[in-house]
Amino acid sequence: MKVAVYPGTFDPVTNGHLDVLRQALAVFDRVVVAVAPNIGKHPMFSVDERVDLFRRAVDGWSGVEVLSSDGLTVDLAKSLDAGAIVRGVRSTGDLETESQMALMNRHLAPTVVTVSFFPGEPSVYVSSSLVKEVFRFGGDVSHQVPPPVLNALSEKRGSTT
User: For residues 128 and 9, is the Cβ–Cβ distance under 8 A?
Assistant: First the structure.
C-alpha cells in the first residue's frame, strides 16, 4: 500500500487543499492529512476545530485519514511507514520554500520523498490567510472553501459581533 502524509496548518481548509488531496489520492492508496498547530500563523481555528473541519470536508472520501501532529512531518511519515510527503504549490514563491523544505526532509529521512501537486486554476491564488482576510471584511468566500468551513467561519463571525 502506498501511503503519503499531507501536512499543513489548514486554517481553514480550502478547496485548493481538497484539490491537492484529490490529486494525491490518484497516486497514493492512503493519504494521512496531518494538521499542525503553527502558532506563528495566528490561527483562527484551534487544531481540534481544524481536524474536525477537514474530516467533515472529506466525509465519505475513501483513503483519507485526518489527525493532528505537532512534530516533524518526516518523523510522522516514518511512524506511518509512508513513503511520501504531499505538498501543494501555487506559485514560484511556494516552489522555493517547498524545495528548501523538501531538501531538509530528504536529509532527515532519505527514504521519504516529497511530491508536489499544483491546485487547479480556480484555486491557484487562494490561501487560507487570504480566505480569512476576505471573510473578515465581509467578502464572499463561498467558492473557495467547502460548506462545513463556510458554516464555521460564519459561526466565528457571529460569536465576535
Answer: yes
pLDDT one-digit tens code per residue, 33-49: 999 997 777 889 999 99
Domains plus CATH for the chain? Answer: 3-160 (3.40.50.620)
CB atoms within 10 A of CB 78: 16
Residue 92 is given by DSSP the state: H
What tens digit of pLDDT does each residue of 104-122 get?
A: 999 999 999 999 999 887 7
Query: In angstroms, what is the C-alpha Rg of the chain?
Result: 15
- Gap between the Cα atoms of 52 and 50, Å rounded: 5
Name the pTM for this structure.
0.92
Are 145 and 54 in contact, with CB atoms under 8 Å apart?
A: no
Higher-scoring residue by pLDDT: 41, 95: 95
Could you give the residue numbers annotated as active site?
17, 41, 90, 128
Cβ atoms within 10 Å, residue 111: 10
CA gap 3, 85 in Å, rounded: 9
Amino acid residing at 20: V
**Rounded Cα–Cα distance for residues 6 and 114 (Å):** 10
